[in-house]
Amino acid sequence: MELTKIAFGGGCHWCTEAVFQTLIGVEKIEQGWVSSTEKNSSFSEAVIVHFDVEKIALKILIEIHLLTHKSTSNHSMRSKYRSAIYYFTQHQKKEIIKITEELQSCFKNKIITKTLEFKGFKPSTVAFQNYYQTNPDKPFCKNYINPKLNFLLKEFSNQVNKCKVNHLITSI
After folding, report:
1. Rounded Cα–Cα distance for residues 35 and 170 (Å)
2. What is the pLDDT of residues 48-104, one digit of tens each?
3. Which domains does the chain have, with CATH numbers?
């Protein structure tokens, strides 16, 4: 099986990593910082998602990304938490732009998430990788990540690997 990759930045990479780790068809997540070009060449928290297009569509991944972070808010922390979808090919860029434009009608406010070229990656230290899966009882996970995973269970139930969020299913 050949995997496709895409990178997402929005909020904390612990949250972003946890969201995508729970999805059927997502085979690998690389957590860290991603850079692009020109004015977006600084590194910003993000994840690289390796996925099987036979199991999950790029459109679903983008929709989940836009709905699980503040994709319409240009807040003061945007340099650390750049709202972006990073592409690896020109074909992917065109597809991302088309999908984002289609999804705009689902949002009250304008989506500010940028479509940016992927240029560089710096991985998080090992202690922070796979953060939610190794620390689900930490207050940060309970307060910030669990609500996102509960949202996925409610709105994208057929895309969620229930084994990875089994501890939440009894609490819904």
Report:
1. 39
2. 999 999 999 999 999 999 999 999 988 777 777 899 999 999 999 999 999 999 999
3. 4-169 (3.30.1060.10)
